[in-house]
Structure formats: C-alpha cells, structure tokens
Amino acid sequence: MDEQLKKTPLVCVVGPTASGKSSLAVKLAQKLSGEIISADSMQIYEYMNIGTAKPTAAEMCGIPHHLIDFIPPDKLFTVADYVKLARQKINEVTKQNKLPILTGGTGLYISSVADNIIFSESPSNTKLRAELKAISDEQGNEFMWNMLNEIDPILAKTLHPNNSGRVLRGIEIYKLTGTTMTEHKRLSRLRESPYKLCMLGLNFKNRETLYARIDARVDAMISLGLVDEVRELIKMGYSKTSVQAIGYKEFFDYLNGKCSLQEAVDCVKQETRKYAKRQLTWFRRDERINWIYVDEFEDNDLILQEALKLINKNTGGI
RNA sequence: GGCGCCAUAGCCAAGCGGUAAGGCAGAGGUCUGCAAAACCUUUAUCCCCGAUUCGAUUUCGGGUGGCGCCU
User: Fold this and answer.
1) Which residues 115-144 of A interface with strand B at a CB distance below 7 A?
2) Rounded distance, CA A268 to CA A274, Å?
3) Which of A1, A78, A195, A220 is deepest in the core (most CB within 10 A)?
4) ipTM more than 0.85?
C-alpha cells in the first residue's frame, strides 16, 4: 500500500487515430492541472504537421505538449530513445506538481513506458545488420529463421520466417551482446513500474463511425494543404522518414504524375483505416485499458466526464 | 426487332468434365531498438430452369440480366 502511494500518477490516453485522443487529453489537462506527453512516432518530427495531425497552438489551449516537433525528419529515432525522453518528461512534469498525461497512438511507445521496459545499451549495429541482410538476401528467410532457431528457439517459435526484420534483429542482438533476445526481454522487465497508471482507451462501438471520421479527417488535411506540405518536405530533401508515414508516402506517386490526386487521397484513407485497425489490435490486448466508446456519448463533454470518472475510480483521486 | 459477347465472393479476376487460382477490401492476430513499420491467419460451392453424363461451375437448349453493334 505504501508502495502504491509512492508511485507517480500517470494517465494514458490511447486509441486509434482520429478517435479524439488529443482533444480529450487537453481537456483532462485543463481539469486536472496536467501536461501532455505525446506518444506518437511521427509527431516527433519537424515540418510534418498536417499529415501527422500534430496539434496546433490553438488546439493545445496553452497546455504544454512534450515530445512533439523536436527532431528533423531524417533522424533515426527508436523506442529506446523515446522511453528515455518520456520518463524524463514525466519526472519533470511531476516535479512541478503537474499530472503527466501520456497521449498517443503508438502502442509500442505507450506500452514500453507503462511497463517500464529497460532497454539495454547496445552499440551501433548498422554494419552487422547490413551483413545479415546480405546473407538473408542470398540464403532466404528460412535459412535465417533456422539460424535464429539455433540461438534463440523461444523467440524463433514466435516469429514467422517471413518476418525477416525481426528474425534478423533476433540474430543481431545475440551476436552483438552475447545474450539472446529472450533473455533481453526478461531483463527488461525486472524493474517494477514506478507509475500509478490509469489508462483510458478511446474506441467505437461501430467501426464504420471511426472509418467515417478518418475519411473526413483526411479530406480536412487536404484542405489544409497537406500536398504542399509534402512538396516542401521533398524540396528540403526529407523523404526518408516521410517515406513511411501515412499521408506522405502516398503522395509521392501523385507528385511524380503516376496517379491522380483522388487516387492518392483514397489511398491515404485506406492506409489510415488499416493503421487504425492495427492500433486497436495492439491496445485491445492490454487489460489495463478502460475503454470509452466514443459513439455512445452525445458530446465531448460527456466523454470528458466519463474519463474523469474513470480516472477517479482507478486512482482513488488525483 | 436482329446479331454478337458476357454472367464466378463486397469489388477485380483466373480456371476446368471430377466438387473453384490470385489480388483488393473486410475481419482476426503477432509485436522489445525505423512501429504511421514489418509479419501472419481468414472469407464462394460458380445467375435460374431443364438436358447429356457415373459426375457440370465447366457441354447443349431455354430463361433472366447486362454490354456492344445493326435496322
């Protein structure tokens, strides 16, 4: 019990894209004297504003937002980097007697912070990775999987041979550290979470409603000048990270004259829906999440009330 | 009115006398260092009726629907 009292309160607002996380988080911050720490793998980048739905100054309503818009789009950024920064921000916010509110749709980032995953230090590995990639290209996925199965059968069993990225990573981490991924995972979870968590998840009873919101939002992004934003990024020479961001990569073909604007827009909508579905798959398995079904409430105020109620119930008051 | 073509899953689409590829969409899932990424699983009895046949989605006849052309 005393242990519980010592823990740092941390509210998490999760859910699929376009479910209203940002807006709810801001309102919670206003009510509970909080600050927002973003958990979004794309909003971290500068110049990618419209397409990542980065909150505008107006939308922030004066609430401080951390871990948004702070690194150039071509910089490599990993979960480990994120967790480090997020922990730091949570501490800073807490020290000011403010409530940290972790908000975002990147499940891996959220979980890693919430579960207090300790990522081991590992040296730069691009060379080894390239070597493994070369072998893989030559010998094939099965071969690499068998190699992994020799060194870390537990991990191998959970991976499909076609998932070469992970298979290679499993081999790589062993060659690099002499310790298997399975062991790394065990070690990463030894320290108990310092947070008193309250996780809120936004979802929809009717999936169609979510998809309609996604479509509408993509259309809105276009009106706001998303295509010009993509043009600018390319002009600045940034096409590496944006290559994998939905709402950016789809416009490359359009800008190269390979498809119509409408086709590109439809593609963005489609990809965003699939992304939302994947996000739900990720979050659904986290039993700590208290789900709020957005389409069961008449307006945002009622959603806020529900969220406050859940926070109260789960933390005994903050 | 005549001639020709087509009819396979929500969509696109292959196929064959022995009980139907693939792609997309949809649904479900995996997840520890680029995660808005990567990967996995999953969905039909072939327009209707008759005939031939051991057996028809596949052949033949008729119907219905659609497309094209002609008068």
Assistant:
1) 117, 119-122
2) 10
3) A195
4) yes
